[in-house]
Amino acid sequence: MILVLDVGNTTTVVGLFEGEELVGRWRITTAPRTSDELGVYLLSLMELRGLGRCVEGAVMSSVVPPLDVPWQEAVRVYLGVDLLRVDASLEMGLKVKYKAPHEVGADRLVNALAARELFGFPCAVADFGTALTLDLVDAEGAYLGGCIAPGIATSVEALFGRTAKLPKVSFVPPRSVIGGDTSESIRAGLFFGFAAMVDGLVERAEEELGYPLKVVATGGDARAISPLSRRIEAVDEDLTLKGLLIIFRKVSLRP
Description:
Blueprint: E1 2-7, E2 11-18, E3 21-29, H1 35-48, E4 57-62, H2 68-79, E5 83-85, H3 106-119, E6 123-128, E7 131-137, E8 143-150, H4 152-162, H5 182-209, E9 214-218, H6 222-225, E10 232-235, H7 239-253
Parallel strand pairs: 1-4, 4-5, 6-9, 9-10
Antiparallel strand pairs: 1-2, 2-3, 6-7, 7-8
């Protein structure tokens, strides 16, 4: 089995692949932890699923640098394998045209490569996480860069943190863009607003590039927002995990 780790600002997604099948998938809160704590987490999750410790390799994308070493030590000590860390310097078959490659988040590169390999190119990946990111792969299959905006949960926290009278609302898609009360109005603004943001950014990118893009969505809120988008063609909530597996295999097969 291959262990894949997507360490995000809010949530860490842990996955286990056996061949092409994702046999285990867990979400844990991203927080400061020791290597021993992370190791116990891993073993407990695997034991509960009856998966044992037969891990042949491991790969990680992380946007939380303080957790990189604890994760590497946890995987080495508790699973007995080295943890491959993805960043722009890794030779993974993706040309990066970003002006400052060292600044781009590893998850953005992983998503771009996964979308290119699984859905074709040119393409755009909308990742609905703590931040909303839109990442572009050009007609040559290279990573261009993209856009970063506050994510839905981040926007909600800011909205309610700065307004005294607005009620907190459930995260349920609205039936109409025209809210009939305050709760409906907030949900309409969030759901239709984020869908329209993705649509608008994609259209502007296409105008600059001069050709159409296939749009893929991923992230925790992708399923909720995608039906309201006019441009999102596919949703894959495990896109990042699949991308990590692809990268691990590319690097492992390299002479």
